[in-house]
Design a protein that fits this description.
The protein is α+β, with helices and mostly antiparallel strands. The protein is built from twelve helices and 37 strands. InterPro entries: Aerotolerance_reg_N, Double_TM_dom.
């Protein structure tokens, strides 16, 4: 038994008062004269023993009555916990789009929210709600109801270990509080990157799994485009099902809101089908694929954009090599050549790639301009001259913090090794070549490029072409001149893919689509003014994403800002410069679930629950207080009543 006001119990010392009264009855008897004794009542004889018993019984009833009154005012109760302790229930409510699936009572998220409202009536229990995109702390019954009703679906999903970590951090900041955590989710497999870690979990935790009635779901997995004809494009889409099936699903293709065509995805006892559409090449194609499936609605649409590739600006400074002009053709590139005397530094910020082609010396002003260009996202290729002034080259490398070039070596070496994993040559060859006509060079410079990776190597195991990437910029260095009198590299089959990809990697094409994730970094190749910004809009909402402006591009960093799939326009000074397509992640569409019994791993603090009613009954019983003060008041009245009976009727 516990007491809400135990300090009142000190009043029990006052029980000594009736004891003193009964033990020391200091009565003085006075003589009263009567004229005739016949007027006196008949006095019944009592024995000395019975009179003593009556006194003790009276004393005991008075002590018990007085004690019960004092105990009643101290408010006694029975409970596992004290009244000074608070109760805090933290609920993780999964509001990802997979909770849109239909259960026995409708959509999983809405039905579980309604069950929580119906089963939560504890006045002394604060409830906090954690979702994938928000946290609501210390809700009373009214605010809890309003919060649960207003929760929307989120494209973001939290790893279950992150959920436990967040709940533990919240609970650890609340002293003298009894905590309970409830995880309510469909517990899909992709939602757990590693084994669930309960080692730091000292809080009682319930796992409540909600499951849909139907675990068959059709969804559009991915889209890719093939450009095989001069006038047409082939749009391919992969349609998937969560189980092997032989059903047929109709898929429609739209360009914005215009219906382009329909086709049927046929499943032959499989879970994947590929469809294709043939469309005319257009300047811009904002495509949307749509299928009809009632299991989950969020993944029935798939958005993508097709735009004509932008031309890449390439500037060569130095020797006017004809092979570069043949590689950088007008259909894909804006190629310019300038001599050292003709340099126009004002065009640097518009270039995607600058090639220093066999300069004898690099002037100080050029070094300063290249440093600014490189530090703001520019890309540089350096081809040394046979008469290079090493000091000026090292001055450039020093300004770029990339290392140094050493002495000249006049020995003949062959180019023998290709780094097939390097992005510049990764997808160039259908198979790895072990024996080909090796290009050679009769002059090399020893190089020490920091944080570099070799693209091709000499037979001496020294790099012939190497690269270093930093701050969204790439630097490529040849250790030999490409003059035909020194090297026959420009006559080898390697020269075209290497130089072509130097430029292509300087301007990566915009993706057909992006998935909505917590962090998305998207390059927008556009030059904006100082203190200017890019805005994004989907027609309903407009926002300013985090962005970093470089020499000829802006990197957009989208942090939980895209909440809805569809098309988003990127604008500068109220002019649209790009359209991007976003889709919900496809992991949720797979409908693969975890086994909660294995997940709990027999942890004593973790319990698998089958219903919200069960878990909230446990919470109610946990915080239940059985007050006893009414009983003690009743007993005090009873003992006073017994005293009255004893005094009136106890005659022995």
């Amino acid at each position: 038994m516990q007491f809400k006001h135990p300090e009142i119990l000190y009043a029990l010392f006052l029980v000594i008062i009736p004891i003193i009264v009964h033990l020391f009855q200091l009565q003085k008897f006075a003589k009263v004269p009567f004229t005739n004794v016949k007027f006196l009542k008949k006095i019944e004889q009592q024995t000395r023993k019975s009179a003593r018993l009556k006194k003790w019984l009276t004393l005991i009833t008075r002590i018990l009555a007085f004690s019960c009154i004092i105990i009643a005012f101290s408010q006694p109760y029975f409970s596992k916990y004290t009244t000074q302790q608070n109760f805090e229930t933290s609920i993780y409510l999964d509001n990802s789009y997979s909770m849109q699936a239909k259960g026995e009572s409708g959509e999983l998220l809405k039905s579980i929210a309604q069950e929580i409202i119906e089963n939560t009536h504890q006045k002394n229990n604060r409830i906090s709600i954690l979702t994938n995109d928000n946290y609501f702390k210390g809700l009373d019954e009214t605010r809890l109801k309003n919060t649960l009703i207003s929760i929307k679906y989120s494209p973001y999903k939290i790893d279950l270990n992150t959920v436990l970590l967040k709940l533990n951090q919240v609970n650890s900041n609340q002293p003298n509080t009894i905590h309970k955590s409830i995880l309510i989710s469909d517990f899909q497999k992709f939602n757990l990157n590693n084994k669930l870690n309960f080692t730091s979990n000292n809080t009682s935790t319930n796992l409540l799994k909600v499951t849909p009635k139907n675990n068959i779901n059709f969804f559009i997995d991915s889209v890719y485009v093939e450009d095989n004809l001069l006038t047409d494009l082939t749009i391919n889409a992969i349609i998937k099902c969560t189980k092997n099936t032989s059903e047929k699903i109709t898929v429609s293709l739209f360009n914005n809101s215009t219906l382009i065509g329909k086709t049927t995805a046929v499943f032959s006892n499989s879970n994947k089908s590929t469809i294709e559409f043939s469309v005319k090449k257009e300047q811009n194609f904002n495509g949307k694929l749509t299928l009809q499936d009632s299991s989950l609605e969020f993944d029935n649409d798939f958005f993508f954009t097709i735009t004509n590739p932008e031309k890449i600006n390439v500037l060569t400074i130095g020797e006017n090599s004809s092979f570069l002009k043949k590689i950088y053709t007008l259909d894909e590139f804006n190629y310019k050549h300038q001599t050292i005397q003709q340099i126009n530094y004002n065009i640097f910020n518009h270039q995607h790639l600058i090639i220093l082609n066999e300069l004898v010396s690099i002037p100080t002003q050029l070094i300063s301009s290249l440093q600014q260009y490189f530090n703001t996202g520019g890309n540089i290729v350096v081809i040394p001259s046979k008469d290079s002034e090493i000091a000026t080259y090292n001055n450039l490398l020093n300004k770029l913090a990339l290392g140094s070039i050493g002495s000249k070596i006049e020995n003949e070496h062959f180019v023998t090794t290709i780094n097939y994993e390097h992005p510049i040559v990764k997808n160039v060859f259908e198979k790895r070549i072990s024996n080909f006509k090796y290009p050679k060079t009769s002059l090399q410079y020893s190089t020490n490029l920091l944080n570099s990776t070799a693209i091709v190597n000499l037979d001496s195991n020294k790099p012939f072409v190497s690269s270093s990437t930093t701050n969204n910029s790439s630097f490529y260095l040849f250790n030999s001149p490409l003059n035909i009198n020194i090297s026959n590299f420009i006559q080898s089959p390697l020269v075209v893919p290497i130089f072509y990809n130097f430029a292509k990697h300087s301007l990566q094409p915009t993706n057909l689509y992006y998935y909505i994730t917590s962090e998305n970094e998207i390059p927008i190749y556009s030059t904006i003014g100082k203190d200017q910004i890019l805005k994004m809009s989907n027609g309903d909402t407009e926002f300013i994403p985090l962005q970093n402006a470089f020499q000829n591009k802006v990197i957009l960093n989208l942090q939980n800002q895209i909440l809805k799939s569809g098309f988003y326009s990127v604008s500068y000074n109220n002019s649209k410069i790009k359209t991007l397509a976003f889709n919900y992640p496809k992991q949720e569409s797979e409908l693969e679930y975890l086994d909660l019994q294995k997940l709990s791993n027999n942890n004593p603090n973790v319990e698998v629950t089958t219903s919200t009613e069960q878990v909230f009954d446990e919470i109610s019983n946990q915080g239940k207080i059985n007050w006893l003060f009414k009983w003690f008041l009743a007993f005090s009245i009873l003992f006073l009543f017994l005293e009255m009976l004893i005094l009136k009727y106890f005659n022995i």
